[in-house]
Amino acid sequence: MTGKQYTVIIEDHLGLNHVQAAHWLGITMRTEYAYKNGRARVSHHVARLLLLIEHFKLTPEQASKIWGDE
Asked: In this structure, are residues 62 and 44 in contact, taking their beta carbons and an 8 Å threshold?
């Protein structure tokens, strides 16, 4: 997943800003910015999760309900 793909899903599909995205995904702000700017490859697990959320047109709240609070 490219930084652009990541950003489109996070911002356009999920409507999250970068602080919210980092918190929701359980990653640091540094990692979140690296994903967004293409400086780091989006981890395989995060990419799969985001692609599934996009495919099933889930909101962050719906996805969080499925995977539960941790």
From this structure: no
Report the candidate in 38, 36, 45, 5 with the shortest Cα–Cα distance to residue 18: 36
- 67 pLDDT band (50/70/90 cuts)? confident
SS3 readout for the chain: CCHHHHHHHHHHHCCCCHHHHHHHHCCCHHHHHHHHHCCCCCCHHHHHHHHHHHHCCCCHHHHHHHHCCC
C-alpha angle 51/48/21, rounded to 5°? Answer: 75
Contact at 8 Å (CB) between 24 and 64?
yes
Arithmetic mean of pLDDT over the chain:
94
Q: Which amino acid is at 21?
A: A
